[in-house]
Description:
- The longest helix has 10 residues, at 59-68.
- A hairpin with a 6-residue loop joins β3 and β4.
- This protein is mainly beta.
- The chain is elongated.
- The strands form 2 sheets. The protein has a 4-stranded mixed beta sheet, covered by helices on one side. Strands 3-4 form a two-stranded antiparallel ribbon.
- Helix content is 10%, strand content 22%.
- It has one domain: atu1810 like domain (Double Stranded RNA Binding Domain).
Amino acid sequence: MVARIYQPAKNAMQSGRGNSDHWLMDFEASAAKRVEPLMGWTSASDMKNNEVRLKFDSREAAIAFAEKHGIDYQLIPPTPKRRRIRTYSDNFRSDRTMPWTH
């Protein structure tokens, strides 16, 4: 049983960075999912597959929890957040690659 510890990225519906400062611990699947042939539902025999997700305030708290309970973990570092600063006046610059028109 291997766990992934990571900081989630903001989803497409978020414009700001709020509620993205926590860390998550997910467990990798130990068995493949199977499809029920009549209705087409997917199921798994392992409950930790996608049903258990733990939330922590910091990376150190998640690592301490995994080590305390003897869980092998894989730490995925957060991707650096790039910010492109744009101003309204950039729309009217003379050296634009595409001319501004109505």
